[in-house]
Specification:
This protein is α+β, with helices and mostly antiparallel strands. The protein is 29% helix and 13% strand. It has one domain.
């Protein structure tokens, strides 16, 4: 899914900056209900005071992304999820 992941190597403080950076880069300047966000997931490669750690946020914030991860269509996401729970 093209355009669904933004990556950065800029150092971010996980307690003070990480969500703020996503708010402006990933969510387009607003924070709406996760099912309404069309912004990409964001992968931070450089976490302050956590050498080698990476943080991925908003992976499941888009129904389209969740459907793609589960291998189904957005409109049948609930049915697909229920079927997977019953396996």
């Amino acid at each position: 899914m093209e355009g669904q992941l933004v990556e950065t190597n800029i150092e971010v403080d996980p307690t003070a900056e990480l969500v703020g950076v996503y708010r402006h880069v990933g969510a387009g300047g607003t924070v709406m209900r996760p099912t309404k966000i069309d912004g990409p997931a964001m992968l931070f490669h450089n976490i302050k005071n956590h050498k080698g750690a990476k943080v991925l946020i908003c992976l499941l914030a888009s129904r389209e992304r969740v459907a793609a991860l589960l291998g189904c269509k957005r409109m049948s996401l609930v049915n697909c999820y229920v079927m997977l729970l019953c396996i």
